[in-house]
Design a protein that fits this description.
single chain, 609 residues, alpha+beta, nine-stranded antiparallel sheet, nine-stranded mixed sheet, 9 helices, 29% strand, carbohydrate metabolism, FN3_dom
């Protein structure tokens, strides 16, 4: 229901003059000091030209003549279903500059924010505004930021909100100039036919040219590339230049690298780094963490899981994936750009997988028809985008065990049996190079130490431990298991004590269970065998906003010390030392970027990357 205005109404010239004076007084009282170079960069912030310059998700926005804050028009945007009525525009800005974003809003749960700042994206909101209320926030752009997206939105299921007189005040974006030459060029570990390169970004660059022995051989949009097609046991010299609309920079200082003699294992699911960082990329949706293009994924991430492929219905087995809609993610790349960026990541030695499921993507393969549809639809996604494999992130009610299904070694529940069969078919189709990872919650794995399915007499939650037969049946094909050590209740460890998320102790106890093995539901005749350390990574939220159970970098370090060195273990004593532990998984790459890369930086510092 739309709210009415104040009960007292002015009429005639006095009302017009009073309103104008009040508006002017409010502006003067609250506006920050501006420099001579500052200007309002927002286009059509008063909506006097309709929605010119603005994009509103799902057609949620329109322009109305009442109520307005000033002038003759204002934005009215109406949330519906899962659409929060986000209206946005992209504005050209200058790097390393400070901006103030303001708007007058009216309604319940109205948000104002800016994304793509290159530093910390900002937002502010009001819970209830019966009359126009000013929202204001500020931010500083990053050293390479030349555009930001400003937006307003409401909240799911609430009434329409109004916005007017939106301004973004700060220095305007300068005409493009030729960027400086890249610095920090480094060569990674060479193979017999390739050399991975990385460098520091140049401010204002939109791309980079890679030179081998003085000849341009490759272009890149990010700050890494892998030069391929090289000859074994040969020395090469590499340089990089930066480009934008104004031209190409001078070349960087040269770096030399020599290819190996060959004969080692290269490519495929077995060639991950000894210690790998796995992250999920919000490729099909947006949330408060902001959209990240594939080309902009930092080089620290070794495995990139695309979140998410989801079914057309819970039981169809028909999995679909598409990039985030432009209306929801204004900065989303084109399909061609996305595919090119995937290839570039792979050329740099990264693995890119499709992750199936997630919190909202319930998948139940109840029939062989659904199983076969799953195989064909997942294959289509892998082939369309040229991906390296599959991540299974079945949550909620996707997996459960029928009454009487009590032995994880010989499952009988169709949703489990059909999933195992489908994944084996995919593995056989794509061969040894196929990368297979899984991201179950603790409820579906470690809880199996106490409870398995509905139990021998029924009555228990049939989902308890339901991932165990899947993991066990596919252990020889499994590249990585990274259980979500978050959004979890307390779980009993092998010390028969309960452990709670958020500190090193939880990760130590949960990981030790996977690397030691355990009797399922306490039955010593049904022991889930240990996984290899190189098959296991610890799953954590990348920031406090990403999920319950965030663990500070210091506590993550303690957990790694205990598991790989048997130091800093606290009260829990592991059943072994696991220097080959593969690494860490984070939800998500987007949330880590939102948190200034804290998670990835801690990983790199610990493992010396």
């Amino acid at each position: 229901m739309e709210r009415t205005g104040p009960p007292a109404r002015f009429t005639g010239l006095l009302a017009v003059c009073s309103a104008a004076l009040l508006a002017a007084a409010g502006l003067v009282a609250s506006a920050p000091a501006a420099t001579a170079a500052d200007a309002d960069l927002a286009r059509n912030g008063g909506f006097e030209a309709g929605l010119d310059g603005w994009t509103c998700s799902g057609g949620s926005g329109t322009v109305v003549s009442t109520p307005v804050h000033s002038g003759t028009s204002a934005l009215k945007a109406t949330p519906a279903g899962s659409d929060n009525a986000k209206c946005s525009q992209t504005v050209t800005v200058k790097p390393d500059s400070t901006y103030t974003l303001q708007a007058w809003v009216r309604g319940d749960y109205v948000y104002l924010g800016a994304s793509g700042t290159g530093t910390t994206d900002v937002s502010t909101w009001t819970q209830s505004a019966g009359a126009y209320t000013k929202l204001s926030t500020s931010f500083k752009t990053g050293p390479a930021t030349t555009s930001v997206t400003v937006y307003t939105h409401g909240w799911y299921g609430t009434a329409a909100y109004y916005a007017d007189d939106l301004t973004l005040v700060g220095p305007g974006g300068a005409p493009a100039t030729v960027p400086a030459a890249p610095t920090g060029l480094k060569a990674g570990t060479a193979t017999s036919t390739s050399v991975p390169l990385s460098w520091t970004a140049s401010a204002g660059a939109t791309g980079y040219q890679v030179y081998r022995d003085g000849t341009k051989v490759q272009t890149a949009t990010g700050t890494s590339a892998t030069v391929t097609g090289l000859t074994a046991s040969t020395a090469y010299s590499f340089q990089v230049s930066a480009v934008n609309a104004a031209g190409e920079s001078a070349k960087s200082a040269a770096v030399s690298a020599t290819t190996t003699s060959g004969g080692g294992q290269e490519g495929g699911g077995g060639d991950l780094p000894a210690h790998a960082l796995v992250g999920y990329l919000h490729a099909s949706f947006a949330n408060g963490s902001g959209y990240t293009r594939m080309a902009d994924v930092p080089d620290s991430w070794d495995v990139i899981n695309l979140a998410f492929g989801e079914p057309t219905s819970v039981t169809s087995g028909d999995i679909r994936f598409s990039l985030c809609p432009v209306a929801e993610c204004p900065g989303v790349e084109s399909e061609a750009e996305f595919k090119a960026a995937v290839k570039a990541k792979q050329a740099a030695g990264k693995k890119v997988l499709i992750s199936i499921g997630g919190q909202n993507g319930q998948v139940q393969l109840n029939s062989t028809a659904a199983r076969d549809t799953f195989v064909s639809s997942v294959s289509k996604i892998i082939d369309t985008y040229g991906l390296d494999g599959l991540d299974i992130d079945f949550e909620g009610h996707s997996l459960s065990l029928n009454t009487g299904d009590t032995d994880f070694r010989n499952p009988t529940s169709p949703v489990v049996v059909n999933l195992i069969s489908a994944v084996k078919t995919l593995k056989a189709k794509y061969g040894e190079d196929f990368v297979l990872t899984m991201a179950p919650e603790t409820f579906f794995v470690q809880l199996g130490y106490q409870y398995y399915g509905s139990g021998p007499w029924g009555g228990q939650d049939p989902r308890a431990g339901a991932y165990l037969p899947v993991i066990h049946a596919l252990r020889d094909d499994l590249t990585l298991l990274h259980v979500q050590d978050y959004n979890s209740g307390s779980i009993m460890g092998l010390d028969n004590q309960y452990h709670s998320m958020g500190g090193a102790d939880f990760h130590i106890a949960m990981t030790d269970m996977l690397l030691t093995g355990f009797p399922v539901a306490g039955d010593q005749t049904k022991v889930f065998p240990a996984l290899r350390p190189d098959q296991v990574a610890i799953g954590l939220p990348a920031s406090t906003q990403a999920g319950n159970g965030h663990t500070s970098p210091a506590e993550v370090t303690k957990a790694l010390n205990c598991l790989t060195k048997k130091t800093d273990c606290g009260s829990y004593q592991t059943h072994g030392t696991y220097p080959g532990l593969r690494g860490l998984m984070a939800w998500s790459i987007n949330w880590d970027r939102f948190n200034n890369g804290e998670f990835a930086k801690n990983f790199d510092a610990y493992f010396g990357n």
